[in-house]
Structure to design on (417 residues):
């Protein structure tokens, strides 16, 4: 009898078959329990660390320090005193004396008008003055004769009053003639048109020989170059942002708010003279949505010209205990910005941060980092939380986060995009 027949014969009875099924089920359950217990066993961490190879990353250390900041704005140069040169009398323009676009001194002649009519008027006024002076002399002598006669009752009081009235009338006529002469002399002087200020001239607006009247009296303009104004504007959002940062202690203004204005020309060079803020318009410009601010700067060489566009930096503010991080170390996600840190276990750890303005090639971090944090600079795109890391120095020139450039090479602060 084979083994199959023996098994069949043994368990052919119903009671025997039930016992067999129970034994099979118990064996299956025991096997499942063994497998589960084996699967729940934790691997040896020391064995896993021995097999895991660390990833080399460049890191910098977060070191808080006081960082001088200099926000940068686009500005436009404006003359501190731009004078319109106009003809003050009607007449023919004789000729232009100055060179258009040249710098003229105060009192230098710009235009000459035809003086002949005004000389004639002056001569007429002088002749009228001489006539009135002669009449005054007659009235004076007549009064001198009448006074003693009236005192001796040889003439009536009316004769004395008439003599006095004639003298006073002649005296008033002389005063009027003198004023006419003075007016004629003043009109004659207006034919020589001079510059009231030291500055640069613009093009002549009237040609030689043109008759000048009230409708075309504008001749040219003279703009003062030194000192000069540099106007720039800040938006309402920027103004509120600065006020908020100052109130939170993130920004310290200079003493008495005396900002130093540095001017950057179109080629990137720095203007040799610095200025200061002298005016802040208290009114809000509804059309541009900005507030106007004016800086005054000396311009003795005339390098800055009216309507020229420049960039200015406001220097003097300081961010206390600021932390700076290279821009390439900051990642932007759907939930905000983050950086990767090397934690105490030398593993990668993402850290959400609050960023501020740019500072050269670095970024101000307002919240999220602390002194001594190891920040991953390069290789962040391939990192995953918990990745074993090996910190190395950056291949470029080592710069600790927060160290920033030296005060002598202070970088401008730009707004974060």
């Amino acid at each position: 009898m084979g083994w199959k027949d023996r098994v069949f014969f043994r368990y052919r009875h119903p009671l025997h078959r039930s016992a067999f099924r129970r034994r099979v089920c118990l064996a299956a359950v025991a096997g499942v329990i063994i497998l589960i217990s084996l699967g729940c066993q934790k691997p040896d961490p020391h064995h896993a660390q021995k097999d895991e190879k660390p990833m080399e990353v460049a890191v910098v250390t977060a070191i808080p320090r006081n960082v001088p900041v200099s926000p940068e704005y686009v500005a436009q140069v404006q003359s501190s005193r731009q004078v319109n040169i106009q003809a003050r009398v009607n007449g023919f323009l004789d000729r232009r004396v100055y060179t258009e676009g040249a710098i003229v001194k105060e009192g230098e002649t710009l235009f000459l008008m035809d003086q002949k009519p005004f000389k004639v008027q002056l001569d007429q006024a002088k002749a009228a003055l001489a006539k009135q002076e002669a009449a005054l002399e007659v009235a004076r002598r007549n009064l001198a004769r009448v006074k003693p006669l009236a005192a001796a009752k040889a003439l009536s009081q009316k004769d004395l009053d008439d003599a006095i009235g004639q003298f006073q009338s002649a005296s008033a006529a002389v005063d009027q003639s003198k004023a006419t002469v003075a007016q004629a002399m003043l009109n004659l002087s207006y034919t020589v048109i001079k510059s009231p200020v030291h500055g640069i001239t613009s093009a002549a607006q009237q040609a030689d020989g043109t008759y000048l009247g009230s409708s075309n009296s504008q001749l040219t303009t003279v703009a003062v170059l030194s000192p000069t104004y540099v106007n720039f504007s800040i938006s309402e959002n920027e103004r509120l942002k600065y006020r908020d940062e100052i109130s939170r202690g993130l920004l310290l203004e200079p003493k008495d708010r005396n900002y130093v204005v540095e001017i950057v020309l179109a080629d990137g060079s720095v203007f040799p003279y610095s200025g200061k803020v002298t005016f802040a318009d208290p009114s809000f410009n509804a059309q541009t949505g900005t507030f106007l601010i004016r800086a005054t700067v000396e311009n003795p060489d005339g390098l800055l010209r009216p309507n020229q566009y420049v960039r200015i930096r406001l220097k003097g503010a300081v961010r206390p205990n600021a932390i700076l991080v290279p821009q390439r170390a900051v990642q932007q996600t759907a939930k905000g910005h983050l950086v990767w840190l090397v934690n105490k276990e030398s593993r990668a750890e993402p850290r959400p941060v609050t960023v501020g303005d740019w500072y050269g090639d670095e970024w101000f971090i307002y919240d999220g980092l602390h002194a001594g944090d190891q920040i991953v600079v390069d290789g962040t795109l391939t990192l995953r939380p918990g990745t074993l890391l090996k910190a190395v120095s950056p291949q470029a020139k080592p710069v600790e986060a927060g160290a920033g450039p030296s005060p002598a090479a202070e970088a401008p602060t730009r707004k974060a995009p």
